[in-house]
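Sanity check

After download, print the first record. It should look like this:
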Amino acid sequence: MQHVNMWIEDELQAAARSDHRKVLDEDGCSSLHEVARKIYALGVHDGCVQQSNRDTARRHRERIRAEDGAL
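Expected structure tokens:
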């Protein structure tokens, strides 16, 4: 969220220096934070899914090794 706040500050400063830029309003700031939150949540979810897949593959390999050793 810190990067979103820094970007918002940069945009506000740029709008103050230029007649060709619109000022970002509070609704726009809130929307940016919401998008950042969703992206972060999706990244965390994807990371959890990948870790689960790695754990499943590891357990499968261990099971195969155990079965091969029992022969």
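If your output differs, re-run the checksum step. Summary of this record's structure: Helices lie at 2-17, 26-70.
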